[in-house]
Amino acid sequence: MGCKMAVRGIRVLPDPVLRQKAKKVTIIDRSVQRLIDDMIETMRAASGVGLAAPQVGTPLRIAVIEMPGSEVMVLINPEIVKRQGERLVQEGCLSIPGYQGEIKRSVWIKVKAQDRQGRNIRLKGEELLAQALEHEIDHINGVLYVDRVEGPDKLWKLVPESGQEGL
136, 150, 161, 165: which is the annotated catalytic residue? Predict the structure, then answer.
């Protein structure tokens, strides 16, 4: 890699950058590569599965996802081209700490994007990967999971662990 990666601050609601529709990446230069490296480092430091550029204050259409036991996926200008099915999931977000909600996500989706070398890629995701892809693509469109919660009873504050049995 050569250059030092950095953990960036994660923006939290009500930061306006989280509500902007991010700009398309037209040139993948050194600053974009550095942003991607920093996003990966930040996601790992926060124990996240994915991270979108607006979450670190940069309104660009870039997301990184790292599923347990898999390589990091770098998605530049990702778009959902097909989705199928519907399932209820519990979801949280690094930009909305301390909360979780129940929302509907697709069972599987197909996404087209570019990798960090600018090559066109297509990927299909099911279950958690589909959820992560939808979540991060929502971020670059200025949408947060709380916008998809169907009522106040479907969003809850997480209680710090105190030895009590959870769900």
Answer: 136
